[in-house]
Structures are given as C-alpha cells and as structure tokens.
Amino acid sequence: MSPGRVLVTGGAGFIGSAIVDALVADGVEVLAVDSLHPGAHDAEPAYTSPAAEHVRADVRDTDAMAGAVRGVDAVCHQAAMVGLGLDLGDIADYVANNDLGTAVLLRALHERGFEGPIALASSMVVYGEGAYRCSTHGSVRPAPRSRADLDAGRYEPPCPRCEAPLTPEAIDEDAPLEPRNVYAATKLHQEHLIAAYVREHGGSAASLRYHNVYGPRMPRDTPYAGVASIFRSALERGEAPRVLEDGAQRRNFVHVSDVARANLLALGSGADGAFNIASPEPHTVGEMATALAAAFPGAPAPEVVGGYRLGDVRHVFASPERAQRELGFAAAVGFDDGMRSFATDELRAPAGRSAIRP
Question: CB-based burial of residue 138 (10 Å sphere; 0-12 exposed, 13-18 middle, 19+ buried)?
Fold first, then answer.
C-alpha cells in the first residue's frame, strides 16, 4: 500500500501484530493501539515491533480514540473479543467490546472528518451455515441443527423442504447472512456500523471475512481458541487431538501471514464491501488434525469423539474469487506446508479465560 500512517486496533493480538509487522515491512508508519487486557496478555508481548508506535488504550475509551485517529490515513480495525465463547454469560462482554468499541472508534473518526480506507476484521461466522444444494430443490438454506439431531449423531443438516441429504458448496459474499451465535451477531453488527459510516462520510470499508486463521502467536489453551490451537496444544501434551462430531466438518484454513497481506491489499485498493479471506481449497477438521499430528514425531493419532458445540455449524467454506478479483488476494501458504510450520510456531500462552483482543 502507499506510505502513510495507519491505525491498527488490537495491534498486539494474534492477527493484529502480524498486520503491524507487514505494514512496517512495507515502509508504512504504524500506530498500534491495544488495551493489553489482563485476560489476554500478562504484559506487552515480546514480539511487538519496535518500529511501530504502541499505545495502551481500550477502543471503548472516547478520549483515547480521539487521540489515536488524529493524523492517520487509514484504519485497520482488529480489536475484538473472539471465538464462540462459553455460553450466554459472555453476551455483554462480546457486545461491549465488539459493538460498542467499534461505535466509539467510528465516533472519533466522525468527529475528525476521516474519509480514508477502513479494513475490518470480520468473520465467516456471519454466514451461519454455509451454502448447500438439494438435488431436487436447488440452492437451499438449512435450519439450525437441533439438539436432538446432534445428540443422535445426525450432524448433516437436511433439506428444509424435503429432508433429503444436501451437498455443501463454496459460499460467496452475496449469500444470505444468518449469524447463529453471539460472537457472529456482533461481527455482523460491526460490518453494518462501518458500512453506515462510509455511506455518510465517503471513503471505503472492506469487511474481511476471515475463515479459520492459524499461525504463530495464536493463543493456546483457552476455551475461545481456534480449533488448530486446541489440537496443537493437545499434541504438545502428548495427547491425541479430540475431534468433535465425525470430523467431516469442512472449513478453509488460512495462514495469518496471508490474512495480514489481505489487510494491506484492502487498505491500498480502497475496495468497498465484504470479502472472503480464505484458502482456495477446503479441508475437513479431521484432515487438519491428521496433518498437524503428522508433524509431531510419535504423536498419537487424532480421536473422533463425537459430541458437538451448540452454535457450531456443519460446513462453511468460501469462494475467494471476489478477493482475488478486487483485492488481488490469493493465499500463498498451502495447507500441508502451513500445518508443518504450525507444529513448531511459537504460540501465546493464555493470561486467563478471556479472549479480548483490543
């Protein structure tokens, strides 16, 4: 992207710090804002780039955001509470950090009259279930899976019209959006808030719908961590990764370095709208567990244990065509190479049970 000054919220987090590093390497002046919440960080991480300016502040702090947006040419908004969460007891924290935090940032930008590009860390979870096709009824939208079906091991959603088996397909950005858990609802609200800002002020807003991101600095051993981190932590303990359902859930797994590059491309292009940030080919969760275990000599094979997490969806994988066409983005790290690398990547030790990343 063109030189300038970029604000990165959540700049000490897993993805945010990778974006900061990529911007610095591209010769961009960076202001990284992060609250270093004690639930996520014991102290400022050793990996934060000394070439960036770092400010400890919460995105919900009106005065701090007014100062942070002063003089910036672009905004990369990564600060959020992430993951599926434990239960509805997390709802107020998700809404406060994700929705209110975004609103406070946008108010600061409004008062400054900011008209530059914004890149938002959105997520595949805004889709709910992925895309499906029925041999009789064509493209259909299955209902949320019931507890009774999941308890009985019936994991595949049936056609909502005839109950026939469905074929999962790659989902594109124009698909209907149906967030099915609290985190997903807050990510979609962030997209709507930022789109509303751009409609009033001009500029551009790229909502980058990350698929399953993995790589160095990922937090470990937390109930909010991604499945790749959970499996990696089990293998380090000499335990078999425990794969829920039957392991056939299909996902895109995308390396954090590719996600960082997508943010730079979005800011530099001034692109508007939503973009899937994903690898070109989906893999099952079971395949991911097997590939990761293979990178640990003598590691136990993954165990498919059944069970489920209520709020999880069965299949969601993306078409990355729009991001390639409009951003020039294509994932560079292949699945096999990425999993081999992830087996030895340094992960971030948890500081508590929270997944707050501002």
Answer: exposed
